[in-house]
Amino acid sequence: MTRVLPVPSPDSDAADALVVFTPSGKRGRFPLGTPVLQAARQLGVDLDSVCGGRGICSKCQITPQFGEFPKHGVTVTEDALSAWNAVEERYDRIRGLKEGRRLGCQAKVEGDVVIDVPPESQVHRQVVRKAA
């Protein structure tokens, strides 16, 4: 059973940002500067990380989404997440990140954001079998 936390009313603390994870749809409000991996863990989002958030395993890759999201009642701007840091730059230089991807352990929430968790970053990936 999926547990979705309620989103506080608009008059709640303005310093908190709405974070929506897809495909799970889990959402919550977090203080600015919260690492995406931490927000995911607090909401129970299925986001893998085996290096303890040090930015070396790349299991926590995410894809931030930008634009208007009427379904979620949010508009996401390009500055919704912190800028790339030295850890992400190093990882991308050595191993490479797919276009538009970020490391969830390094990216920090700076505004309302919709974050897609790709299948390869999910701990419990769906497996479709044709034969038993």
**Chain-averaged pLDDT:** 86
The CATH topology is Ubiquitin-like (UB roll)
Q: What's the CATH H-level homologous superfamily?
A: Beta-grasp domain
Percent range of helical residues: 10-25%
Rounded radius of gyration (Å) = 15 Å
What is the H/E string?
EEHEEEHEE
Q: How much of the polypeptide forms β-strand, as a percent range?
A: 15-25%
Shape: globular
Unreliable residue stretches: 1-12
- CATH architecture heading: Roll
- Main beta-sheet annotation: 5 strands, mixed
Report the total helices.
2
What keywords describe this structure?
five-stranded mixed β-sheet; alpha+beta; 22% strand; 132 residues
Short description:
Helix content is 13%, strand content 22%.
What's the layout of helices and strands?
Layout: E1 16-22, E2 27-31, H1 36-43, E3 61-65, E4 67-69, E5 74-76, H2 86-94, E6 102-103, E7 113-116
Parallel strand pairs: 1-7
Antiparallel strand pairs: 1-2, 3-6, 3-7, 4-5
Structure description:
There is one protein chain. With 132 residues, the chain is an alpha+beta fold. It has one domain: Roll (Ubiquitin-like (UB roll)), CATH 3.10.20.30. The protein contains two helices and seven strands, in the order ββαβββαββ. The chain has a five-stranded mixed sheet, covered by helices on one side. A two-stranded antiparallel ribbon has the order 4-5. A hairpin with a 4-residue loop joins β1 and β2. Residues 1-12 have low confidence and may be disordered.
